[in-house]
Amino acid sequence: MSFDALSWRGQFPLLASHPQLHYLDSAATSQICRAAFDAVGLHELGRRANVLRGTYRLAEMADAAYEDARRQVAAYLNAGSADEVVFTSGATASINLVAHAFGEGLQPGDEVALSLAEHHSNFVPWQMLRARRGVALRFLPLAADGRIDLSRLEQAVTPRCRLVAVTQASNVTGAVTDLAPLVAAARAVGARVLVDGAQAAQHGPVDVTALGCDFYAFSGHKVFAPNGVGVLWGRAAELERLPPFLGGGGMIGRVTAADTTWAPPPRRFEAGTPPIAQAVGLGAALDWLRQQPWPEMRSHGEHLLGRLLDGLEALPGLTLLGPRQPEHRLPLVSFSLAGIHPHDACQVLDQHGVAVRGGHLCAQPLMDYFGVTAAVRASLAPYNTEEDVAALLAGLEDVVRRLS
Ligand code: PMP
To answer: Domain 5-31+293-403, what architecture?
Structure first.
């Protein structure tokens, strides 16, 4: 069965009403799918109430919808139980939750291993933890193409390592991390593994059980769902032993003037009113995504990526960041253009109806590693077509003609 990207595009209200838009910035935010948009609308119009607080029917309907969403997320992740799914405001909040709750148990001299290829969201919280708890950060060695060099893991994953925090796929190079050796190295020294799935989760259902990690973080707005919601998946036994991060309503067992006990996970980590309608939208998006023809969609992405890479290589002065081989990367590419600032390039591309991102891409340590200050990034989702790639390449020719 061949995949029809144009009809997929029709499932995205904004794209359907902007036929001339070449949206190539899904790594920053994907467009919302109709299933998620409709689910949010239905919820807000028919079931809006707070969760876990009311005993009237409307509130019970809101509760049921919220817990259904948790099950839908668990199914997308192949999690052992829906109780392993914590709703947060996004990947950043999920990672900060671990940095605080898990970090609380760390001592000076304990180590967290991460890489220079991390998004700032999976970098800065560990530097902040270092300042709070005196832990040391160890950096996983990178190969020249920005991928983690798996042959030298013992340099960073030492017997003092307590946590390996690593991205499943880089938002700059698209490089996909081979997690199995990292998980094995962490297990060998008794360390836990946090996977930043913010980019990877957009490209098909995830199997946290097969990955063998302990925590997995991602955001709704990058998986064709609303923003303001995200997920921290945690292995049940891991969540059970963590203290809460934020205190407030909903996360307690019993509060007295003297002391407070905690609710079991996932509630323990969901202080205050959660993003209810957004979670319902996220559940609907993932439920819909799970039923999509992913093998065909991946082939479509690889085909477009191949076209894009071929076209980029023909452009004078263009340097690609990251590995060339399509099998090692998501369908996203970042590059620099000799003598042209990425923001200028993006503005010219916008005149061609092409939306791409330019800047440091929230990955300054990786930019430093590559010796550049900024880059242009084009990222593809299954709703992108040959026309989108052709428009980008034509726009880039114009950029080079006008600006170099
Ligand atoms: N990690 C990676 C790899 C990302 O690409 C992003 C978003 N650009 C994040 C984390 C943070 O996601 P959010 O801003 O939705 O919290």
So the answer is: Alpha-Beta Complex (3.90)
> What is the per-residue pLDDT across 62-97, written as a single tens digit (0 to 9) for each?
999 999 999 999 999 999 999 999 999 999 999 999
Distance in Å, CA 57 to ligand 1 centroid: 37
Three-state SS sequence of 89-157: CCHHHHHHHHHHHCHHHCCCCCEEEEECCCCHHHCHHHHHHHHHHCCEEEEECECCCCCECHHHHHHCC
3-state secondary structure of 319: strand
* 37-290 fold: Aspartate Aminotransferase; domain 2 (3.40.640)
Predicted TM-score of the model (pTM): 0.98
In the structure, which protein residues have their CB atom closer than 6 angstroms to any atom of ligand 1? 90-92, 119, 121-122, 167, 171, 196, 198-199, 219, 221, 362
The candidate with the shortest Cα–Cα distance to 133, out of 92, 91, 162, 155, is: 162
Where do the CATH 3.90.1150.10 domains begin and end in the chain? 5-31+293-403
Residue pair 242/232 in contact by the 8 Å Cβ criterion: no
